[in-house]
Every structure is written in structure tokens, then in C-alpha cells.
Specification:
Number of domains: 1
Oligomer: single chain
Radius of gyration: 19 Å
CATH architecture: 7 Propeller
Number of strands: 29
Helix content: under 10%
Strand content: 35-45%
Length: about 350
């Protein structure tokens, strides 16, 4: 029987909710884990059923934990640690990404200060990717409003040696040799020209908000930066501007269709130019971002709700289910690829991440 388990990171621990086979009934599993520490991200590894949680406690220190029994028990990993003599100290984890099916024991993690870490033993120990760390441009990286973190790890569908990472504020870096070397990857096409008098954007492409790789089609990427949305097709080496049609350019949460390489979703956030009547909505594209359609059926009308960088995910059902959490502690679900929505959880702490695990 196919079901969905949602791993919900919040500002006060990790929660899990489970669906029935129809995804109509949802059960909040007993208790939370890691409270009162904030959980920036939690993920499920479909290769072996492991779970991972980025527990970022201000009391007792941040840590990465893993579970081999669907969250019944958890084990603390050996934390990422910068080399002796480094001027940096591990502060917190932003993202944990299971590796490619061809590399069964590999797990990746992105941290603050911005750095990429690789585990060869399913998350028990971590080693720094020194090639990215040694980039001459690292001196240009600066903190965004939420800090200076590496938070997006986009592994190619066909080749595990090809991947991108997104850094706030540091831009995109690409490797084609499994992380042995990296190149800056921030060339944009199609964006409107800057108005006279505006401050030029830095060469590091500003603040990356979310970068996704298509899970089945090699080379397809979907990206949100601080004020824009971009798309990339196979074989391309530039980012194509795809923001036209969205009510605001700002936002974090995004998802990409698990099979269709032309379909994606995002949640624009309010800015000073919008009114409350606009409210929360999910925008869908079926043509690689050339056009966008607003969907808000079932969502609270006019509510200026917020969803963060890790706040949206999708399942693997034939009719793709979408899920997002809000700063108000609500979780919403769609069983029809984003057309209509229902609230499936409420009164949770501030939701920081949503990960949908499709279970057989």
C-alpha cells in the first residue's frame, strides 16, 4: 500500500504525519523529536529508508542526526568540522541531500558557514569538500538576511558526478567531476536591464533561495534567487529568466514535477507593493516558466502566509501530491498537482521544512 510520510521541521522540533492510501486522511504521529531546537531540514533516503535531521540548537550546539528505523530512534553523527587552524567553525546545517542511486552510501550536507560536506558512510561521519572551500571567490561571499549558508544541493538525474550547489550570498557553483573541481555558474539571459542609477548586481549572482534538479531528466534545473526565477534545460550553461507572470519576484519555496520536465511550482511572498487581498497562492508552470497560473482554491483568502526555503515538497504518486508548511504552523496538501488545497495539520510551531517521503 502506497502512503506518504511528511517530515516537518519546525522551530521547535521535528514532527511527522502519515497519510492513508488515498492521501485523504492524515495522522499526526505521536510526539515530536528534538524540541525545543529548530530543525532547518529533515529528509528521507529512499535508497535504504534512513532519515536525517539538521538539529540546530542554540543550547548544546547544532548536530546532524540519523535514524534507521523510520524515526523511532535517532543517533548523533560525528559533526562536520573544519580543518584545524581554519578561521571558521561549524555553526548549523541548512540541508541534507541523499546521494545518487549509483552512490548508495553517499550523503551530502550544506552548512553555515557556507561549505559542502560529504559522507561516505550514510551520515555517520562527514568530510569537507576542499575544492569548493578553496575557491578564490569565497572571499566575496557575504551573509544574506538568514545567514551565509550552502542550502541547495542539486544532483544530476543521470550522472552523480554532475551537481550544482546554491549559496546565500555566493551564487551557484557547478562540478562535473564529483566535487574535485568547481566553476562559478551565474550567467543569466533574458532578465530585464537594470534601470539607470540602480546598484549593479554582484558577479556572484546575489542570493540563491532554492535550486532544484529534476529527479529523472538530466540537465533540467529550476531556481529561485532573491528577486527572480530561472530555468535551465539540458545542455545549457546559462540561466533563463522566467519570472514574468508572477505577482512578486520574491520567494523561497519551490518544487519540480517528478516526471514532467516542464512543470514546476513556487509560492511568491508578499512585498510592500501587494495588498492582503492577494493572499497566499501556489503558482504552477507547465511550460518551463514561460507562463504561470495561480491556484488558491482551499487556501485562506487574503492571508499573507509565508513558506520558507525548505517549506514545499512533492510526492511520487501518479497524480502528484504537493505539500507546504507556513510560519503559522499550518500544513497544506494538494492531491491534484496544486489545483486545490486542504489544510492537513495546524497549530504546529513555525514550519521551516517539509519533506514528502513516498512509502510502498
Amino acid at each position: 500500500m502506497r502512503t506518504v510520510r511528511l517530515l516537518l521541521g519546525t522551530k521547535k522540533g521535528l514532527y511527522q504525519i502519515q497519510s492513508d492510501a488515498d492521501r485523504k486522511k492524515w495522522t499526526l504521529l505521536e510526539g515530536s523529536y528534538g524540541a525545543p531546537a529548530p530543525i532547518h531540514h529533515a529528509s528521507y533516503d529512499p535508497r535504504d529508508g534512513s532519515m536525517y535531521a539538521a538539529i540546530n540548537s542554540t543550547w548544546g550546539g547544532s548536530r546532524i542526526e540519523y535514524s534507521r528505523d523510520m524515526g523511532k530512534t535517532w543517533t548523533v553523527s560525528k559533526n562536520p568540522s573544519f580543518p584545524q587552524g581554519s578561521d571558521r567553525t561549524f555553526y548549523q546545517t541548512w540541508h541534507i541531500e541523499p546521494g545518487h542511486a549509483k552512490t548508495p552510501n553517499v550523503i551530502w550536507a550544506g552548512t553555515e558557514p557556507a561549505a559542502l560536506w560529504k559522507s561516505l558512510d550514510r551520515g555517520e561521519t562527514w568530510e569537507l569538500n576542499e575544492a569548493l572551500d578553496d575557491q578564490p571567490s569565497r572571499k566575496e561571499w557575504v551573509p544574506g538576511f538568514g545567514g551565509m549558508g550552502l542550502h541547495s544541493i542539486a544532483i544530476d538525474a543521470a550522472d552523480p558526478k554532475k551537481m550544482q550547489v546554491g549559496i546565500s550570498v555566493g551564487g551557484v557553483y557547478t562540478t562535473n567531476d564529483g566535487g574535485a573541481s568547481w566553476t562559478r555558474d551565474n550567467t543569466q539571459v533574458g532578465a530585464p536591464k537594470q534601470a539607470s542609477g540602480e546598484t549593479p548586481r554582484p558577479d556572484v549572482f546575489g542570493c540563491i533561495h532554492k535550486l532544484l534538479a529534476h529527479p529523472r531528466v538530466s540537465g533540467v534545473r529550476f531556481m529561485r534567487v532573491h528577486l527572480e526565477v530561472y530555468w535551465r534545460d539540458p545542455g545549457e550553461t546559462t540561466w533563463t529568466y522566467r519570472t514574468t507572470g508572477l505577482p512578486t519576484h520574491f520567494g523561497f519555496a519551490a518544487a519540480i514535477h517528478p516526471r514532467d520536465p516542464k512543470t514546476a511550482w513556487c509560492i511568491p511572498l508578499h512585498d510592500t507593493k501587494r495588498t492582503a487581498e492577494d493572499g497566499i497562492a501556489v503558482y504552477k508552470t507547465t511550460d518551463k516558466g514561460a507562463t504561470w497560473t495561480r491556484h488558491d482554491q482551499g487556501l485562506p483568502k487574503g492571508a499573507p502566509l509565508e513558506s520558507l526555503r525548505e517549506g514545499m515538497d512533492n510526492d511520487e504518486f501518479d497524480d502528484v501530491g504537493l505539500y507546504f508548511g507556513t510560519a503559522n504552523g499550518d500544513v497544506y496538501a494538494s492531491r491534484d498537482e496544486g489545483k486545490s488545497w486542504e489544510r492537513i495539520a495546524q497549530y504546529l510551531p513555525y514550519v521551516t521544512s517539509v519533506h514528502a517521503a513516498t512509502l510502498e
